[in-house]
Amino acid sequence: MAGTDGLIFRQLFEKESSTYTYLLADTESKEALLIDPVVETAERDANLCKDLGLRLVYGLNTHCHADHVTGTGKLKELVPGMKSVIAKAAGAKADMLVEHGEKIAFGKHSLEVRATPGHTDGCITFVLNGGTACFTGDAILIRGCGRTDFQGGNAAMLYTKVHEQIFSLPDTCNLYPAHDYKGMTSSTVLEEKTLNPRLTKTKEEFIELMNNLGLPYPKQIDRALPLNLMCGVQDII
Amino acid sequence: MAGTDGLIFRQLFEKESSTYTYLLADTESKEALLIDPVVETAERDANLCKDLGLRLVYGLNTHCHADHVTGTGKLKELVPGMKSVIAKAAGAKADMLVEHGEKIAFGKHSLEVRATPGHTDGCITFVLNGGTACFTGDAILIRGCGRTDFQGGNAAMLYTKVHEQIFSLPDTCNLYPAHDYKGMTSSTVLEEKTLNPRLTKTKEEFIELMNNLGLPYPKQIDRALPLNLMCGVQDII
Ligand SMILES: [Fe+2]
Ligand SMILES: [Fe+2]
User: Fold this and answer.
1) 3-state SS of B155-185?
2) Cα(A105)–Cα(A94) distance, rounded to whole angstroms?
3) Cα(A189)–Cα(A192) distance, rounded to whole angstroms?
4) Sorting pLDDT into bands at 50, 70 and 90, what band is A237?
5) Which residue ranges make up each domain of chain A?
6) What long-range pairs does A91-96 form, CB within 8 A, spacing at least 24?
7) Among A144, A226, B8, B210, which has the minimal tally of Cβ within 10 Å of its Cβ?
8) In angstroms, what is the span from residue B84 Cα to ligand 2's centroid?
9) Distance of alpha carbon B159 from alpha carbon B147, whole angstroms
10) How far is CA A26 from CA A7, A8, A9, A87, B129, in A?
11) Residues of B whose CB is below 8 A from A184
């Protein structure tokens, strides 16, 4: 990623759910955070932090996932002191509940929280250092977007929020989603503004399309959702 | 990737063989090249070039792969004029056969060819812009390396070449392999120099280890190798 001196950045992939996890850290203070870690790869991610001499401070969730179990619970066990983070609007438990406009600092870098509901009612996008990169969760995917038919999903809202909060970022802003199923790893705001087959439609066409996708019930939802509402922390009884 | 103004860079993934393909292009001249494309994802890669307004000039193979069919043959059909490239030492057909020390230019950027045999006798590593990044094929993988038990493989040679040609690059040089099976997407020269469990051993220990891996015969080799010796071009009879 250009223009980001003193930043460590790693994209990581979990094959089963095709989820991308992102490691961001400051080279000087060694503070690190993970965006959307997955329980199956939590150990890999904790080891990478250790290998790189980093102190994992935050484990962030862009939203309450329905397709995989978040890694933030497991990571809290592996890395004592790490704080789990999710949007207040997600209605889930976490160490830190954030709202639109807040900033999460790590060393001299920061992530700005932008509310981008529509896929779920608690989706947030993280914007790095004023617009170098954005981590969009499932709000917008590469040439696609998250479904809007459950968990408080709302196609009209998603359309408005993506245009208002993500497409207003610099054209050059690198766009990193929570998933990709075709082996693409990143995009840019300009690319999605001009090439996204769904979000370049009119709002009315978009709503019509999203309300008629006829997708199957997510495979892992019954296992994942109750756990993710606790940020992956399994109560010890 | 820091310090690379005017460069377009994209990592791409093929799930079945866990192969990474890399798109590199110059923002001004729009000349593009692909490193290690896979036949199954050749269309995706050609479309991405088109979407980004790029002219695909070269399709490079780091070596004659045994685990998947190269995409360079299919890409030559999809993008007339694209030239396939492989090392002369690979003993395969291609439009351009390259040797150690040669440079492949695209716009104001260039890749230097470094001979890094050992996994196969025709393996090369591409070094970007004097050491910003290296594309190592299977010579070195993240915390691992390619097997050395067929196709002219030679553990002693691999050890020497990795140390001589790759570990001599700047510590900060980003390292991009042809495969990863654990969802890691990149590393650095410093990381592998200090953390690679195989290549931090002594040469004798490394040879001993590599000669006793007892790996199964590669699944796709009988299909892939004859095709890859033609750079994926299937003769029309
Ligand atoms: Fe989701
Ligand atoms: Fe190979």
Assistant:
1) HHHHHHHHHHHHCCCCCCCEEEECECCCCEC
2) 18
3) 5
4) very low
5) 7-212
6) A91/A64, A91/A121, A91/A122, A91/A229, A92/A61, A92/A64, A92/A122, A92/A228, A92/A229, A92/A230, A92/A231, A93/A229, A93/A230, A93/A231, A93/A233, A94/A61, A94/A231, A95/A231, A96/A58
7) A226
8) 17
9) 12
10) 5, 6, 9, 23, 25
11) 10, 12-13, 44, 48
The answer as to CATH 1.10.357.10 being correct for domain A7-212 is no
- Cross-sheet strand order for the sheet of B174-177: B103-106, B109-115, B124-128, B133-137, B174-177, B187-188
> In the predicted model, what is the mean pLDDT of residues B215-234?
90
Tell me the three state secondary structure of residue B62.
coil
Q: What is the pLDDT of residues B183-212, one digit of tens each?
A: 999 999 999 999 999 999 999 999 999 999
Which of A159-168, A211-220, B86-95, B148-157 is the least confident region?
A: A211-220
Whether residue B33 is predicted with pLDDT greater than 60 in this model: the reply is yes
CA of A61 to the centre of ligand 1 (A): 10
Of A4, A10, A15, Cβ closest to residue B185:
A10
Distance B47 CA to ligand 2 centre (A): 26
What is the SS3 assignment for chain A?
Answer: CCCCCCEEEEEEEECCCCEEEEEEEECCCCEEEEECCEHHHHHHHHHHHHHCCCEEEEEECCCCCCCCCECHHHHHHHCCCCEEEEEHHHCCCCCEEECCCCEEEECCEEEEEEECCCCCCCCEEEEECCCCEEEEECCCECCECCCCCCCCCCHHHHHHHHHHHHCCCCCCCEEEECECCCCECCEEHHHHHHHCCCCCCCHHHHHHHHCCCCCCCCCCHHHHHHHHCCCCCCCCC
Does the pLDDT at position A236 exceed 70? no
CB A8 within 8 A of CB A26: yes
Ligand 2 center to residue B119 CA distance, Å?
A: 7
Amino acid, res. B183: G
Task: Count CA within 13 A, CB hemisphere, residue A179.
Answer: 18
**Mean pLDDT across the stretch B31-50?**
98
Residue B1 is predicted with a pLDDT of: 53
Instruction: Using a CB–CB cutoff of 8 Å, tell me whether B28 touches chain A.
Output: no
Contact B185 A14 (CB under 8 A): no
How high is the pLDDT of residue B193?
Answer: 98
The interface predicted TM-score (ipTM) is 0.94
- What is the predicted pLDDT for the residue at B237? 45
Two structure tokens written together for B91: 């003993």
Task: Report which bound ligand comes closest to the CA of B66.
Answer: 2
